[in-house]
Amino acid sequence: MDKVDVVVIGAGVVGLAIGAAIADKGKELYILEKEEVYGQGTSSRNSEVIHAGIYYPAGTLKAELCVKANPMVYEICEKHNVPYKRCGKLIVGNGEAEVAQLDSILKHAKSIGARDLEMIDTEQIKKLEPNVRADQAILSPSTGIVDAHGLMDHFHREARRKAGSDPLVLDTEVTGIEPVKDGFIVRMNSGGEPFEIESRVVINSAGLFSDRVAEMAGIDIDKAGYRLHWSKGEYFSLTGKPPALMLIYPPPPQDAASLGIHSVPDLTGRLRFGPNAFYVDEINYAVESEKEPFWRDIVEYFPDVRMDDLHPDMTGLRAKLQGPGDPVKDFVIRHETDMGLPGFINLVGIESPGLTSSPVIAEMVEKMVRDYLD
Ligand SMILES: Cc1cc2nc3c(=O)[nH]c(=O)nc-3n(C[C@H](O)[C@H](O)[C@H](O)COP(=O)(O)OP(=O)(O)OC[C@H]3O[C@@H](n4cnc5c(N)ncnc54)[C@H](O)[C@@H]3O)c2cc1C
For 31, which DSSP code? Predict the structure, then answer.
């Protein structure tokens, strides 16, 4: 049986970023991906926003990693020609209650270290985005958009360059993980054939399936609090000229399940609105919802958008630890030594802002691996 140093399970943006951070010529590394192309999961079904880290609870990894990652993502994009746009974002409020909500969001965001934020009034909003209706807004110039595939291509190139060969193995689904002395036997189905290797370190970055992969290693996911709840997010696209070039968000809904229906320009100049949020039990990427509730939310801040100009677009699934009615849950990024699994690193519940945070998540995991192997 082949013996390697590190196996990363899953080649989404997080698994690829980890691969790029860990790869070096002295280490045998495999990144195993069940699909025939990398990044086909949640990493290619999201808003592609480079978040500034505004909303996440203080003391969470979500807050810390996102605030740290925001300038890093821009740096990576500039240095490695990954398409991006620092388009900026407005969180807009109409009426007393929403304006009060904006005040507390701004206070909170500053307390967790989010950069460059300021409160602006109607006149300033009109100067930036004349089609937006709002009494007040938080301006976040550091929020932007990135080509998620471009970012993944960069991480893949970097992993290949540092490893000296391509560590990525596609069409390979991990089906079993058995802890043995000094490592793990990783069982897989590779191109239709069963195969196994032994690895000293296993990194579970399997996105929507990371709870199941944790279970394969023998973890009781209910006891550990790792069971995932999939939350679907749907988008509608707008035909015609986009009413704004910046990202426009309402204040987030109180249920903490999403950030609210916002406008998402992409790098080609198209505009989408979304995502909504509802729990599902199966993977089905069709848009199921009616457009009217979307339109009602949108006209609160874009009064001239017509319902007829909205069309079902794409959907994505959030890998949430937060079940229905639960409070916000943090990312799990853990070396599971205390579960009797030295060498097993879990990444579970990597929902938003996982795309933004990917380079910093990768740094964190690289350090765990270095501390363990060296
Ligand atoms: C609607 C929506 C909007 C979002 N918007 C944003 C945003 O604007 N900004 C932001 O920062 N974040 C956003 N996110 C979050 C972001 O998309 C995710 O945090 C990120 O893509 C997670 O990446 P990942 O690599 O962990 O997961 P994935 O991209 O799902 O990758 C996991 C990979 O593991 C593979 N896999 C699974 N099981 C196995 C197995 N047994 N063997 C081998 N391979 C396996 C899968 O095929 C997949 O390729 C959004 C998410 C959603 C759903």
Answer: E
